[in-house]
Amino acid sequence: xxxxxxxxxxxxxxxxxxxxxxxxxxxxxxxxxxxxxxxxxxxxxxxxxxxxxxxxxxxxxxxxxxxxxxxxxxxxxxxxxxxxxxxxxxxxxxxxxxxxxxxxxxxxxxxxxxxxxxxxxxxxxxxxxxxxxxxxxxxxxxxxxxxxxxxxxxxxxxxxxxxxxxxxxxxxxxxxxxxxxxxxxxxxxxxxxxxxxxxxxxxxxxxxxxxxxxxxxxxxxxxxxxxxxxxxxxxxxxx
Length: 239
Prior knowledge:
Helices cover about 35% and strands about 20% of the residues. The protein has 7 helices and 12 strands. Strand 7 and strand 8 (about 155-160) form a beta hairpin. The longest helix is centred in the C-terminal third of the chain and has 23 residues, at about 195-215. The mean pLDDT is about 90.
């Protein structure tokens, strides 16, 4: 079952949760939708979570031609980690990234990914398949749970929803860009600085998300949901 614009508009408010300031930068892979009941669901839902963001940084450096220190990049990204995420399923993004690194701009640096990502997480291409109900690009100060319960004519159904949380991703990228400059993890050209690094991070995150969505299901409906005021979302459908 796919989401519709009407379902998103009426049901999204039932799936919001408060995010404490100290947890605004904790990430998960946006393909992880099932968590243990006691888990705090990380609000920064992006391609691959922390490990995926390391790959995004490497791809951005390759695409835009700036130098980087892999160890400092990895340390900066992992500094956001705050303990077990308690997801009950694997990331789908990371296996796709290793399967087709050239589609993610990573073919030249696959050895770096092998060294840093595979040393922390065993990545395997499996027969794990999952049908998702849709993708929602979110702008809000609230977190959005990725497993929705929707009332239908056949009763209550659970729908896994891919959330790309633009607001929390943007906040994290602003912090990360500054950290990378301060620690000299990257070497930019001329007078380019934090604003430039933030922009290329955002662009490459979009590229990686879209590539993984093509792998998962190119027919997935795509929505944007912006919280205009507390509890009121404006919803648009793009696909």
